[in-house]
Each structure stands twice: as structure tokens, then as C-alpha cells.
Amino acid sequence: MTDGTPEQLPQNPLQEREFNQGQLARNLQATLAGPIASLGSINAILSIGFGAGEEFKPLRELFPLATLHGIDSEKDIVENTQFFLQDEMSDSSNTAIWRAHAQNANAYRRHDYDLVMFRSLETHLISYGTINAILDETEKHLNKQGQLYFTVEDQDHEVSPLKTFLENRGYQVKIYENQFPFKRDGISTRIYKENYHLVAQKLTT
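The chain above was modelled as a monomer; its predicted structure follows.
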């Protein structure tokens, strides 16, 4: 595995889910353990556009006492993820997901999230006007010292523009490369290619 490619690629949707969770768990540990440790306790985390919801299990393992929330605009996605979470998390009492649009104020159930996550954000497909509108609302529900966490695939077309965009909004941005990269060839489209992880925090004035 000199190039980081796993010896055995996932062969079915369940294995793909477990593969994604394993990749994300290791990268969360590598990218968040240091930055988040400086904030003290993490009490509330929100995932926006969670898709398959594969981040919830790794986040629960990393932050066992935190409240985990997730919002997605697609009804089928929310229902499917609820099914998986019932099986994957023995105690889901402080985990909740629901259907909502992140641009709307009523989408949020707290005003003190310590961490807001955007996974596999395809900035080449989503206009920055949309991202701007989402962050306008998200920031109202983020702790003063809270952080944003983004994962993207492409460095030139996604990382650099996103970093510039966030800096223009007053964020300090740290970029981390995937700690466990793998080749694109032969990988299912359901495998998240989260090659770069960005952690952003508002600069204090």
C-alpha cells in the first residue's frame, strides 16, 4: 500500500459505507484533534448536507458527550440516514437529524454550535452566492469561537477558491491533506474522495 490505496476495495454498499466511515474517522482525528482541543469542550456539532450521514459515527466516537445535529434538504436522504443511525449508534438520544434548508433561520435548533461541518462540498457545482447565503445564517448559530469544517476533493478548483472565499469573510483557514489518500481509478462513485480538509475559524477583532 505504498500509494495509500487500500489492499481490498469495497465490494458492496455496506462495505463502501464502512470504508467511508473509516477514512473519515482517521482524518477527523488527524485534523480536528489538535484544532478542536484548543477550544475546550465540544458540546454541539451540526452537519449541513450530511448525505449518507457517515460522519455521525466517527464524530460520536471522537466527541462522545456532544450533541450531534444534521440537516439535509432531501426527504429520502433524511429517512435513509435515520435508518442507518438506529443501527450504528447504541445511544442516539443526543443525536437528531431533520429535513431543512440551511439558508432558513428555522432550520437550526441551537444558537451555540461549536463545530459546523460541510462534507464533500462541490464548490464547482454550488454557486458561492448559495454558500454565502448559507453562511450568513449559519454564523448566527455558531459559537463565537466555533469552527467550520469542510471536505473537498480538488485542490485547484475547490480548495484555493474556498480558502480565499472564507478569508474574505474574516476566517482564518487551515488546510489538511487526506492522511490516507487513495487512487481515484477503480473507486466507486459512492466513495467520498475527501482529499482536502479545511478548518476555518473567525478572526477575533
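The beta strands are 44-48, 67-72, 95-99, 113-118, 142-152, 171-177, 196-202.
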